[in-house]
Amino acid sequence: MVLRTAGGHFSLLVFLWSVAVVQSQNVWSVTYTTQSICTLKGSTVEMSCSYTYPSGTVTSTFWFTKKFDVENYVNLINDRNYKGRVKDRSDKTNGHTLRITDLRESDSAEYKFRFITDQTGGKYSGYPGVTLSVTGLLVKVTPATVTEGQKVTLTCSTTCTLGDNPTYVWYKNGHVTTKSTSLFLNPVSSEDAGRYSCSVEGHEDLPSAEETLTVTCEDV
């Protein structure tokens, strides 16, 4: 039975809704919560996705970065480079989360999710995946050669852009000096010389290596 109102608008809406439902039931897809992540070396990251498929039962799910040939995907859990650092979990609504601890810069890669069903040809990988960039912290001194009386800027440098506009904690000779995006010494004096390092607020356990600031006296 076709439902109608004046002008037939209601029947059109019912038809469009029905088409959308049929299409969603026949789609293979993987949807990632985010497409790119920049995070600190030594920290922990989680990547999540949801997936859909037309029919059958899912028999296998896994994340991968390496594929050697058509059907040779390397499950991260079996990758010796991630041994003991990877966990994945699924939920009842076709969601899946990958967790990697103690991140290394070599973990920077594109992570993809794959699932297999009990149907003939029922396999699917989500492309593109999540691009993970892992960065350390490095103190950059500008200018490189420092003379008393100059304006000097110390920046906590990364190889990718960390999210949420982080605040950096600055240390001199192992002691906290301030919290700011950059550290400004203006004018710099011989008393400012020392070993400087930085960390991201909230991740103080992951500091940069120390950088020695040497201040040269002005010529008289």
TrEMBL record:
Please list which residues make up the signal peptide. Answer: 1-24
> What sequence ranges are listed for the domain Ig-like?
128-214
What keywords appear on the UniProt entry? Signal
Key word Signal present: yes
Name of the protein in its database record: Ig-like domain-containing protein
